[in-house]
């Protein structure tokens, strides 16, 4: 449907004259006078554009009116009106005037007699409020429009001057200006750390339909949640800061204010605003619906809002905001190591801080054992304040040290990568009772391409001169999961972390001749053309496992 603005272009003074002529030709009742006043108000209001978002500026306690009329041609047609307050709560309502468009045209032309006009006025003077709202939430009214109806929208701000956006459309077939929200628009907090919060939310249907034109933007601050993107923009501007045209953040360059910092990494655009009430951060992450917010302050409450943004129109829809408090940062402390006890340490790669362990020797000879579980770790050991070891470790590493009774050893560990790392540590004077199993020269798993079939794979790995238990596990994975599976693998975790259905077999073997200490295994019952992740776990006398490097093999598609 198209909007009919015929009478809008008539000079207002002619319209007023026409109305005055009618008032002179015949006396009017109070209802007719009321209708004439309303009609006069309509023509002194602004016309609301169809299919376009309109920004409306409101002065305190002064109502602002807009109206629209539809062309004749269809008895009923759907329409929607969406109003977005950009600051304080407002009042707005929709008034329905059941006046025919033909009468409005006649009133403007003044070409009917008194009796006809009087009849038309009586028949057309019904006015009713069909919708009324007060608040600062985004509200949408959906209705059916009649060709003989005239609608007026009235907006009022009673707190202070403000602005809003209004969107009217009668075209319900060509898609939505605003991205759609899912049935459950809540943001879930699924992880809280000292400096991070992990959020997830359900996908917008618009993302699934128009992925290339839609993206999610996250806004976080320390004050409160925002119910719309323009409300967030207004709040930041009111702090005396200049913002980009929209938080939709297209990747086109723009100048930042001194209080702003822009960070672009891994296809994510972040803008950090320093304001008096704390930090306001905006992050656009494409179409990912899970995000870990980094670099937060410990023991601080943050408010999180997610907006789904149409990059073509800059229109947006807001998820229901949430909040979370980061954990208190623990006081730095030194952990005491005890003879024979294994502890696992997780190291924060972003902070690059040392984790300290202390051990007081009860024997002259001791041995430190380090098993790298994930990432890369640097080890620094001092004895009575003097450095005795300082190097990066990988796999399983032993350090045998000599000293005196009651010597104090300080072990400092840190991650050498930006991601978190993990390592197991043990100190013991018992060299003859190693906690970890004897390891082969290599922990790699080999697969034989020529022996692959549609439903089987043959793998091999090295053993040792010591009889040990080996367990094989398999797992189906997708192509896009390979890198993540290999990078995130915890080399210290044992089979207890695996599902029972993933277990293939366990076997014992060894060979005095290391050249022959190798075993092969054919795993059958696999699916054709499928990727599998294979793991081998080695168990020593103590029962602590060592995990070989994972191997990814794909079965043949055709045989």
TrEMBL record:
Keyword check for Secreted: yes
The Gene Ontology CC terms held by the record are: extracellular region
UniProt-listed InterPro entries: FN3_dom (IPR003961), FN3_sf (IPR036116), Ig-like_fold (IPR013783), NDNF (IPR019326), NDNF_C (IPR045805), NDNF_Fn(III)_1 (IPR055271), NDNF_N (IPR056225)
One function term, GO molecular function aspect: heparin binding
Where does it primarily localize? secreted
What does the UniProt keyword field contain?
A: Glycoprotein, Neurogenesis, Repeat, Secreted, Signal
- Superkingdom of the source species: Eukaryota
GO terms for biological process?
Answer: nervous system development
Q: Name one Pfam family in it.
A: NDNF_N
What range does the record give for the signal peptide?
1-21
Q: Where is the Fibronectin type-III domain?
A: 179-316, 437-545
Compartments, record wording: Secreted
Briefly state the protein's biological role.
Secretory protein that plays a role in various cellular processes. Acts as a chemorepellent acting on gonadotropin-releasing hormone (GnRH) expressing neurons regulating their migration to the hypothalamus. Also promotes neuron migration, growth and survival as well as neurite outgrowth and is involved in the development of the olfactory system. May also act through the regulation of growth factors activity and downstream signaling. Also regulates extracellular matrix assembly and cell adhesiveness.
Q: What is this protein called?
A: Protein NDNF
Q: What is the lineage of its organism?
A: Eukaryota, Metazoa, Chordata, Craniata, Vertebrata
Q: Which gene encodes it?
A: Ndnf_1
